[in-house]
User: What shape does this take?
Amino acid sequence: MAKKVLVVDDSPTVRQQVGLALKQAGYEVVEATDGADGVAKVGSDSSIGMVILDVNMPRMNGLEMLETVKAGGANANLPVIMLTSEGQQSLIERAKKAGAKGWIVKPFKAELLVAAVKKLLVA
Amino acid sequence: MLDEELATVIEDIAETLFAVPIARVCLPDDAFDASALTACVDYSGGFQGALRATLSAKLARTLATLMMHKLRGSCSEDDVRDAVGEIANIAAGNLRGLLSVDCQVSLPRVSNLVVETAPILSRAQFVLFEEPISVELRGVANARA
Assistant: This one.
């Protein structure tokens, strides 16, 4: 069975880009449109194996979702890669402290993203 | 001035997302018609300002088609606006790291250039609690509606 990756981004363009790259690499992809939607999806689908997470989103941003998921017991070990246009050190450190496994800055190369996902889902 | 940094960010976006070189030029004042799109991302906090990107409707549609891996002509207006907003979002986020102050970026908003530059139809100005308020209505009739 294909490993399932949750892509959380408010932009349909980015969800489409990331989703296509992951599907071509053999992963199953589910989508969430913001952090609150992402928390709900993670909570209701135990087959999700990892999360690709944007930072700047409406309702609940990516860092808030990360901190919520990591504090939530059952999903505390779910690997999360942040995929964002943001490169500020303070944000990277906050994400690292909350348990993010990677930080990829947009614009991104699909090969780089897939390689990062592969590495984490094998580990 | 961040001219070189801004140019580098845009060149990087073009190369990474579209795999094409982008030529830096000086555009004439009338480079855009009324159908052009403008994407804007605001900065707040230690730096107050905005990044604004304007591009022709034709280019916006081409870029959206490439970004979303769709067939030519199959992108909706919403797709095009989202793609243009995402490009501005990437540029604004990349530049934020170069501003050497702690600041926040807004979500992108996209409108037609004609909206941004439309004439003022109505304006009312007031003083409230001894402070000024100015409210304007801008716009033009949309011949395509």
